[in-house]
Give the backbone structure.
Amino acid sequence: MIGRIISCVGGVYTVECENTYYRVYAKGTFRHEGIVPVAGDMVEFTNERVKEGREDVGIINRILERKNVLIRPEVANIDTMFIVFALSSPDPNLLAIDKLTAIAAHADISVVIVFNKEDLANEEEVKYYSEIYKKSGYKVVTLEAGNNKEEAREKLLPLAKGKVSVFTGPSGVGKSTIINALFPHLKLETGVVSEKTRRGKNTTRSTTLYKTGEDSYFVDTPGFTLLDFDRFKFMKKEELVHAFPEYSPLVANCRYTKCTHTKEEGCAILEKIKDGSLPPSRHESFLALWEILKNHKDWEKN
């Protein structure tokens, strides 16, 4: 049978197939081959009694080709990434947002930027942060999820329909509050922001796909601390420019074929930043990520 991995607890996977859920193990040879099934994987499995006297437990025999896979959290075949940050308390970290958008672009995952806690920011702040990402070609949604659940549903549910969606972002920004507004029957635990550290306490403890409609799923991620470019090699430095969708079309207009887009005269990207067409904060993030990626060697593993 063919199904989708919904979760894994203690080495036992839950696989959904035609609205039925099966408990399965990964076949032993996966371990020797260095293969690890993850939530979101489409798999070929058998449903059989593996030991007399035990409940029916099947075996995963093959992992189907992945569209993409994230390293942390480990989840595969994502269509849309909802990147959730607060407009205030805590203030948005633009480099952290841009790390996530770059990883999503490299993995061919569409992005929706969600700025929550709109009620705690003034009009100028809302416009400033929104315009950065609208200029960069992203869908931007602003919310007061804690006070207006209906608004959250109206703005986000259509963007998640028929998709496998991952909600990412640091703790304390209202991620679980937004998900509870969208899918109240799930009743996910929500957290509060520590007054001492202004950082949220993690509330999500396991990577699980929740089915929310026909071919619609979302993933809430455990202990999400933002994907780390220093630890994981997501791409080569030469690929970084294409992980910024607003930059990629301009590359052909640069004066030099091997332009790094960091400081060269005649760089089409730098010209657009100078004339105000592109936001400078995005290029500051580009430079920071370039510095990280240039230290990675081609032979290094992820």
The helical segments are 29-33, 94-106, 123-135, 149-160, 175-182, 268-274, 280-293. The chain has seven helices and 13 strands. The longest helix spans residues 280-293.
